[in-house]
Amino acid sequence: MQRPVHLGTEPPSRNDVVAVARGSATVELADSARGAVSAARAHVERLATAVEPTYGVSTGFGALAVRHIPPDRRAALQQSLVRSHAAGAGDEVEREVVRALVFLRLKTLASGHTGVRLETVEAMAAMLNAGITPIVHEYGSLGCSGDLAPLSAAALALTGEGLVRDADNVLLPAAQALAEAGIKPVALAEKEGLALINGTDGMLGMLVLALRDLRGLLDVADLTAAMSVEALLGTDKVFAADLHALRPHPGQGLSAQRMFGFLSGSEIVESHRGPHCTRVQDAYSLRCSPQVHGAARDTVAYAETVADRELAAAVDNPVVLADGRVESNGNFHGAPIAYVLDFLAIPVADVASIAERRTDRMLDVNRSHGLPPFLADDPGVDSGHMIAQYTQAALVSELKRLAVPASVDSIPSSAMQEDHVSMGWSAARKLRKSVDALRTVLAIELLTAARALDLRAPLKPAPATAAAVAKLREVVPGPGPDRHLAPEIAAAVDLIRSGAL
């Protein structure tokens, strides 16, 4: 059981988000959060009885903000908002994304800047802790005014409407799931509907999850690249620290250091070192791997700074300030997150591209320096890994399309009141596909490089790369006649996803 994540006035970490979204971590409200929520609510209740209208408290929403809503219709106003805005369509969004979305909205509610009641915050925390996951659909967010449709689906579940999945992944009505968990459905009061849906929590959650995955995948890319260099009789000299100190990008230096270390002690590398080796330089896909992987690492590091700033933010409109003012603002615009989501798709595509080029070299008898064509057992009868590279190529082509930015697009909405939007949710959805594709591309390089290293016997690979081959051999057998390759690719993908590699 993971430790509880405490929500107070200090922002949660990226690790906290992952622990709640993917693990079994529960959420606890600190006393500081309870005090801040109660104080902000007092300001909203004061404004609710005021003659002068306040957006989100006593007015309509978006282009309908010009209408002043009488007191006896304000509860209906909030529930109607949530019902009408839960207008998503398409496939069901993954459980981890919805849990991240709910947790991050809860984080903002607990900040004391939204004006919701304490009982509403407690009910949302209870729903999350009970493992109740609202059904959120893939389409419906423009990434401005927040992730409106996805967050509305979560808010609707909190009121006991709509569909959810329980902790056992069973689909059932929200009212039934709440009742079975002993949670009273929330009857929304002034401003609460708006506060529950007006945030960038979905796209931020997907950014944090992608960053976690990419850190691991870039480590794997360094390893599979080193295996390919070794299998192709490449040199480790180009990964020396003094060469990379001449161009002091931190990610490049780290990737070079890792690749140099992975190749340390390799009999294969030593076998072609010396004056008898006539090769002057390796191909770019081998020699420049640290530059490409390192640039990707530095891009991830920048995206992490943006994610951390967003985790420290309280995104709502209007927002309750410490002096009691309730002010409209534009902090719900998803541009800061959308840009880095799009930015990350570029190095993901490029890391996959260079991995595919390394794989192709190992399969080409004219460039593989003594390996059999396509690493086949009986070339001609057997095709070896020929079509595995086709799969890589198809994925790399798809990744190039996914690298086209979503954030440069904007479609006006709400009768031109919301006339510029970020499309950050769309950028996040395509980045998730990109991350999955990169994992598969690296899995195919792993399979191919491991097979090539086996074929270099009796020469032994380095201890580190040999350990990687041994780990793979626990789930995929070594060289031999053609086998059904799809399950082996899937097994390698699972090995990478698990972190075991």
UniProtKB/TrEMBL annotation:
GO cellular component annotations of the record: cytoplasm
Keyword set, alphabetical order: Histidine metabolism, Lyase
Location in or out of the cell: Cytoplasm
EC number: 4.3.1.3
Catalytic activity: L-histidine = trans-urocanate + NH4(+)
PROSITE patterns per the UniProt record, alphabetical: PAL_HISTIDASE (PS00488)
GO MF, any single term: histidine ammonia-lyase activity
Gene Ontology BP terms: L-histidine catabolic process to glutamate and formamide; L-histidine catabolic process to glutamate and formate
Family annotation (InterPro entries): Aromatic_Lyase, Fumarase/histidase_N, HutH, L-Aspartase-like, Phe/His_NH3-lyase_AS
Any Pfam family: Lyase_aromatic
SUPFAM superfamilies membership: L-aspartase-like
Pathway terms, separated by semicolons: Amino-acid degradation; L-histidine degradation into L-glutamate; N-formimidoyl-L-glutamate from L-histidine: step 1/3
Family of this protein: Belongs to the PAL/histidase family.
Protein name, entry field: Histidine ammonia-lyase
